[in-house]
């Protein structure tokens, strides 16, 4: 029998790929569908649990593939109930996922890369530089492995209700892995989620943003942070390749007035982008586009000379946008005490 270290994982495969696996092992085509059910609906961790597949076929599968499930190597729990998980992804690299329980919602913030190429000044992940794209298996594993069994003295967490691709990395820089993951989450043979339960965040990477909009119905969140192009370039080098005005032009070609939602992410920094003039620039940038603005508190990270604006300033900014017909909300900050809040993920082993 081969070592499982070099066997391809089955999680992360679409139904078509699982059917090909079954056929290559001399099994009937329907075994591919059975595999999908065991992997994505029943969330098994071993071939032995796949009891409606013959022992002979299970032995062939285990000799040639691995299920691919990997437990997180550590966890940290915030005082607000948020839990951050660390996963090994090979070659000494780690990534983080954040589980956010909130009344009747349980959201998982998923990573798509180890590190990131976008190099946004204010983001701990961006400051790491790019390490590797995650495979579809490594992305799906985060979703299937959380929430795991509760730690001693804790009650079991509920089933996930939402997934947001807002963890480490730029999701659209890894579209080849992202699209099959979305298919697994939403297809009837997979986890059969509504696309409304999934949000993909991006700096506005084109033309991949257009591919996402054409090929899925998931919600989209665009990191804007300032509507001033020169200022945005200083904070977000991606502005050079993907000017926010071009991104908004692409978005204006799609309908966000019904089930699919568009959000604009806007971190507020004291004395940088938190005044009425910046709010007016943002309003002009939005124009007639149907969207909402998520105002985000800045979480300080080492080596970054930016500061959070005051609560009063955030409320003023939100109320001003609302008064001009823009739906704006202030996002609750979760997990800051364990470095799990927006922009703080750095794939560091928990102490």
Structural notes for this entry:
With 351 residues, this protein is an alpha/beta fold. The protein has twelve helices and 14 strands. The strands form three sheets. A ten-stranded mixed β-sheet has the order 3-4-5-6-9-10-11-12-13-14, with helices on one face. A hairpin with a 5-residue loop joins strand 4 and strand 5. Helix 1 crosses helix 2 and helix 5 packs across helix 6. The longest helix is centred in the C-terminal third of the chain and has 13 residues. The radius of gyration is 21 Å and the shape is elongated. The model has no long low-confidence stretch (mean pLDDT 91).
Summarize the structure.
The protein is α/β, with parallel strands linked by helices and 351 residues long. The chain has twelve helices and 14 strands.
Tell me the strand percentage band. 15-25%
Evaluate the radius of gyration: 21 Å
Structural class call reads alpha/beta
**Biggest beta sheet attributes:** 10 strands, mixed
């Amino acid at each position: 029998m081969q070592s499982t270290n070099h066997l391809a994982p089955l999680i992360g495969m679409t139904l078509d790929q699982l059917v090909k696996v079954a056929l290559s092992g001399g099994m009937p085509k329907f075994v591919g569908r059975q595999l999908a059910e065991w992997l994505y609906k029943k969330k098994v961790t071993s071939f032995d649990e796949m009891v409606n597949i013959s022992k002979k076929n299970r032995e062939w599968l285990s000799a040639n593939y691995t299920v691919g499930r990997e437990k997180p190597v550590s966890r940290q729990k915030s005082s607000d109930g948020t839990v951050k998980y660390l996963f090994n992804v090979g070659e000494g690299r780690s990534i983080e996922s954040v589980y956010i329980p909130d009344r009747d919602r349980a959201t998982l913030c998923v990573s798509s890369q180890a590190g990131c190429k976008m190099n946004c000044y204010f983001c701990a992940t961006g400051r790491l530089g790019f390490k590797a794209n995650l495979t579809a298996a490594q992305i799906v594993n985060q979703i299937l492995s959380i929430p795991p069994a509760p730690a001693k003295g804790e009650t079991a967490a509920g089933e996930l209700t939402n997934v947001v691709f807002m963890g480490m990395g730029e999701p659209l820089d890894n579209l080849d892995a992202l699209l099959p993951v979305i298919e697994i989450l939403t297809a009837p043979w997979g986890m059969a989620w509504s696309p409304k339960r999934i949000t993909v965040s991006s700096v506005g990477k084109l033309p991949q943003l257009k591919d996402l909009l054409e090929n899925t119905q998931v919600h989209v969140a665009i990191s804007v942070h300032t509507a001033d192009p020169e200022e945005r370039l200083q904070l977000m080098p991606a502005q050079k390749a993907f000017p926010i005005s071009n991104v908004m032009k692409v978005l204006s070609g799609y309908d966000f007035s019904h089930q699919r939602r568009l959000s604009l992410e806007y971190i507020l920094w004291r004395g940088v982008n938190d005044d009425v003039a910046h709010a007016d620039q943002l309003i002009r940038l939005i124009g007639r586009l149907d969207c909402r603005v998520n105002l985000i508190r800045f979480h300080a990270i080492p080596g970054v000379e930016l500061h959070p604006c005051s609560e009063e300033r955030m409320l003023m900014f939100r109320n001003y946008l609302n008064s001009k017909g823009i739906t704006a909300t202030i996002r609750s900050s979760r997990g800051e005490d364990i470095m799990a809040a927006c922009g703080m993920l750095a794939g560091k082993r928990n102490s």
